[in-house]
Amino acid sequence: MDSKERYQILFDKINQYNAGDKGITRVAYTNEEQSCTHAFMRMCKAEGLDIRMDPCGNVIARREGRIKGLPPVLMGSHLDTVYQGGKYDGAVGVTAALEVVKRLNEKGIETDHPIEVIAFACEESSRFGVSTVGSKAMAGLFDKDKVRDLKDRDGITLEEALSFCALDIDSIEYANRKDEKIKAFLELHVEQGPVLEGNHKKIGIVTGIAAPVRFSIKIIGTPSHSGTTPMNMRKDALLGASEIALELEKIAVNEQDYGTVATVGVVDIPSGAMNVVPGEVEIKVDIRSTSIDSRQRVLDHLFQTIQTVEKKRKLEIISKEIISEEPVLLSKEITDMTQAICESKGLSYQVMASGAGHDAMNMTKLCPTGLIFVPSVNGLSHHPDEFTELDDILLGIDVLEEAVLQLAVIDSVIS
Fold first, then answer.
1. 31 marked as part of a ligand binding site
2. Which among 179, 216, 355, 385 is placed 20 to 30 Å from 192, CA to CA?
């Protein structure tokens, strides 16, 4: 069996774990995600790796190095998905990391440094509104008191979801590796955008990652009969929410030269009915940029808009910050090394920023970090039709393998 066929089988095994018929739904800390995680642990064990799960649910699979006591080189991504997402987001990076180990085992290569494959828990924010939980915990950035009561669409809190998986939110602090020496971290990921395909490039070499600020905004008006309430006497919470959403789009468009984007991804009308003027609406807002100044301008405009809408429509509007993260720069040494690898292999590449958040952004707090992209067909992601060509994934794995080999020796570009 060649590596292409072997990888396809591995990738398909991971995507057996799915709830529903449309796309892939393998949401964090659910039965499907946990079953997939434990299956992956068995796959790692079959390759002779030492397996452990930390208190946050991160899987850490270790291949020992030739020289005892050297810090490990880490690689990986996540196995959870959004609701009705695609097969490739996250899963490519985790399976690619295991495929690198399979190749090293097949070739009988022993590295100086140990190598670890990481499957991070709860990277996606779709269930609780907070992202990259596993890598935050590993980097010592997890604020349990800020997020423990966040609820999913079924009213289950993050604390409860963890307990259903035999995990304790008050023990997550012990997942941190801040005091441990780590050589480097590498993540292979699908781009989730159209840039590489549009520019006919096979590899994206990421220099920085935009970071989100997210808010839950509750708009409170007065529910009333749609047939008996005159238009000029309504306190329509949905129209207030709509006005906020449209203004948010307008200011984000003005900031697009900075790569800034803003999205209202959730609109919830708790007691909505066709014949009732909406009395309460909750929206969830996601604003991202690699420029702190640009992101702040969007935020300032959002809050000004809230005040204007509140006064004009006689509404009460309550905003709550869910999370605020800082944009990060990735290791120049690793990006330069990756660029040299692409040139040596004759692969077309593009140096670029990432508009999406990744576990790599938190790992920069622990060690030099690199992020490698492979193309997404039509730029689709978080969508059932998400697709990346198998040959493009294999090229990404080739680059990842070479990068790991270069980092896992004593005299690498990073000491």
1. no
2. 216
